[in-house]
Amino acid sequence: MAHVSEALRHRQGSAFAELGLTPATARALHELDPDHPLPARDLAGQLGCDRSNVTVLVDKLEQTGLVERRTDPGDRRQKTLVVTEKGRVVRAGVIEVMSDSRLLSGLRDEELSTLRDLLWKVSDGGCPESLDTA
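User: That's the sequence. What structure does it adopt?
Assistant: Structure tokens below.
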């Protein structure tokens, strides 16, 4: 599993670099909805990181013209993150990279089905184990 994970990271990292992004900035751009501006603190929550880290990511996205900070019309004290037209194009590329299934292209349908079932099983059906405190 570690080898598969590393292969995916390597492929995605190379593809993100071709888009002019790091894996972290690509993930941040991916999390932003182009049709719904978002405060940086909300992006930090979605990414599960500190707001100061998001500031650095947004600075990089803003410097490359992919995101703009704008005053929130509903609360002028707050800035929201808006994906630019250029950002929409690059974000579409990020989505394409993240959904690239070439790593699995050598598998037959029944092998893909088996892989899906096994991955579901080892991930506890997508749910973490419940802790018994009794």
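The longest strand covers residues 75-83.
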